[in-house]
Amino acid sequence: MAKASVVNRLAIIGIGLIGSSIARAARQHGLAGAIAIADASPEAVATASRLGLGDACGTDAATAVADADLVILCVPVGAMGQVGAAIAGALKPGAIVSDVGSVKGAVMAQLAPHLPGGVHLIPAHPVAGTENSGPEAGFATLFHNRWCIVTPPEGASQQAVDALCAFWAGMGANVETMSAERHDLVLAVTSHLPHLIAYNIVGTAADLEQVTRSEVIKFSAGGFRDFTRIAASDPTMWRDIFLNNKDAVLEMIGRFNEDLAALARAIRWGDGDALFELFTRTRAIRRGIIDSGQETAEPDFGRRHEDDATA
Amino acid sequence: MAKASVVNRLAIIGIGLIGSSIARAARQHGLAGAIAIADASPEAVATASRLGLGDACGTDAATAVADADLVILCVPVGAMGQVGAAIAGALKPGAIVSDVGSVKGAVMAQLAPHLPGGVHLIPAHPVAGTENSGPEAGFATLFHNRWCIVTPPEGASQQAVDALCAFWAGMGANVETMSAERHDLVLAVTSHLPHLIAYNIVGTAADLEQVTRSEVIKFSAGGFRDFTRIAASDPTMWRDIFLNNKDAVLEMIGRFNEDLAALARAIRWGDGDALFELFTRTRAIRRGIIDSGQETAEPDFGRRHEDDATA
């Protein structure tokens, strides 16, 4: 499959965690004849050059996409339209333009008006990442055994879709296709709501006047520290996601709030059976995630517990 | 310090994750001359015996505490009163009775009426754990560099408090003393609210009719899977915690809800600056937790990303 998915020239616009992981994985698996990289930040370009992530690196997106067969936009969702406008005139006829944004409806809407006929717009979203940002944060195995969701618009060329899917499969990802609308609903619950809740609880804890920040930090191993990981994700990226998947996110907040109100009521009225019933059901979901290979079975995420050498 | 904290005979009542970790750590650090274990479950007793966790193991708590200098109750918070009544008549004069419960006010209230004069009741709470339960889940380094909060009641014997603190320090824990009331407020935000939120979001996702459970599991690497870890914690233990720290937990839910309402409003009205401001502040909290040694600096909690061998 990897052989069939080789592209002559790959352009990566935006060389952060995801872009740089694509560059590394594509090179490692021999998926691209040449890799051109562009990033608006001269620092990021310098780092990418130093790390040898591409055959060409610069700040001009249009230069990078010239002659590319596959262009992947790895910029925040709110910057897609601007990048689309910048590269439109330089795209090669027949090129595939894709992206890695966590919202798909809004990305389509932003990009489609800019792209010339004869170019294939096939959005995609690899459901993978860490809380770190920047070209140095990426690694070649980031997509391995993670899902990449491809959302072909109506009437998309099947050949182009197949080529993009093969490219992601070649980097070790599992690929699934669905509509942009369905993607945005599913990710609202598996990704956007969790991030919002994590940001919110960390903010709540930081702002309490009755408990000091130093106490919150000291005793965070009681559960709180888990939430701080995704609440340390890139602020620009996540601002754009929430602004661009408003309806689905607000719907999920509504559901979450209803359920939390019921839980608070159970606590207030001492309904232990209701609590026990929920707390038992939720264990099964984690088991399903571990069994499906999307989570480690090691306790505590496999966090390292210090050994006794210094005890 | 370890030398000074050696107790002649240690009794551990309840041999789950925490009890069995204490047994292992106390033995490893030579903190007890002998260890007696009791658990209401014959299966847990059999497992503890097989693992050699104590010098004596049985189902009768009163037998285990006879002649013990330090008794540590490692049972769910809701079972403390019952265990206190069962052991009261068998306690040696001058013995220290402690516990590991995540709520301290209610534990004091449950235990104090049962205990005879001449016995020192000094509650404690090691802020450490994993999502796993049972005697096999424990390990000797669980408390290493974690905080153990000791909540001496007014008028407690300083000698007894010092002995208990030294025992925990001997297992590698950092020890802090505070009032039971303060403990219950601080832990409501660093532990109880995070668990409640995690249980709640996992329940919300499981119950959605628009998104299937299989989709939730598949695409959980987008953030959701992080929450499933603490939502896989022991249901009995957590039911009891919420029922026994009602006021502080309900207060924290109220704060959380206010903040979430403000965030939802920012999303609805497209206030990107408000989102960006919060998402930037929350990064600093994680940095503080890592710098204080309460969290790994490795990305993704140090979760293992599969290597390329099978790619």
From TrEMBL, chains A, B:
<keyword id="KW-0057">Aromatic amino acid biosynthesis</keyword>
<dbReference type="GO" id="GO:0008977">
    <property type="term" value="F:prephenate dehydrogenase (NAD+) activity"/>
</dbReference>
<dbReference type="InterPro" id="IPR046826">
    <property type="entry name" value="PDH_N"/>
</dbReference>
<dbReference type="InterPro" id="IPR008927">
    <property type="entry name" value="6-PGluconate_DH-like_C_sf"/>
</dbReference>
<dbReference type="GO" id="GO:0006571">
    <property type="term" value="P:tyrosine biosynthetic process"/>
</dbReference>
<dbReference type="Pfam" id="PF02153">
    <property type="entry name" value="PDH_N"/>
</dbReference>
<keyword id="KW-0028">Amino-acid biosynthesis</keyword>
<protein>
    <recommendedName>
        <fullName>prephenate dehydrogenase</fullName>
        <ecNumber>1.3.1.12</ecNumber>
    </recommendedName>
</protein>
<dbReference type="InterPro" id="IPR003099">
    <property type="entry name" value="Prephen_DH"/>
</dbReference>
<keyword id="KW-0827">Tyrosine biosynthesis</keyword>
<keyword id="KW-0520">NAD</keyword>
<dbReference type="Pfam" id="PF20463">
    <property type="entry name" value="PDH_C"/>
</dbReference>
<dbReference type="InterPro" id="IPR050812">
    <property type="entry name" value="Preph/Arog_dehydrog"/>
</dbReference>
<feature type="domain" description="Prephenate/arogenate dehydrogenase">
    <location>
        <begin position="8"/>
        <end position="297"/>
    </location>
</feature>
<comment type="pathway">
    <text>Amino-acid biosynthesis; L-tyrosine biosynthesis; (4-hydroxyphenyl)pyruvate from prephenate (NAD(+) route): step 1/1.</text>
</comment>
<dbReference type="GO" id="GO:0070403">
    <property type="term" value="F:NAD+ binding"/>
</dbReference>
<dbReference type="InterPro" id="IPR046825">
    <property type="entry name" value="PDH_C"/>
</dbReference>
<comment type="similarity">
    <text>Belongs to the prephenate/arogenate dehydrogenase family.</text>
</comment>
<keyword id="KW-0560">Oxidoreductase</keyword>
<dbReference type="GO" id="GO:0004665">
    <property type="term" value="F:prephenate dehydrogenase (NADP+) activity"/>
</dbReference>
<dbReference type="InterPro" id="IPR036291">
    <property type="entry name" value="NAD(P)-bd_dom_sf"/>
</dbReference>
